[in-house]
Amino acid sequence: MSRHKKKTRKQKVLADLHRKMQSLETHSSIALNEEKKIKSSEVPRIKPQTTVTYRPLAINTYPFLLKDISRTGILTAIILAFQIILLFLLKNHIISLQGISY
What we know:
Structural class: mainly alpha
Number of domains: 2
Number of strands: 0
């Protein structure tokens, strides 16, 4: 059986906010339905439109991407520096390796 990945703290907070927003939507729709029932016997009036503004929740689907890319870049730079130093040492005959001549 496969294991599910654990949610991070940020994902849990975002899920909680999402649930709260959904509960606010249901409460506001129930309240509007009750108002309609009460006012159905009265003369219809223009109701001010209530808008619920949503802020887009920033869910980072790749939370470790920046860290992984920076590690890869650092490792690549270290390897390139080692190769350049090795080339310099071989060119100036400071070290010699069998089968390799510059």
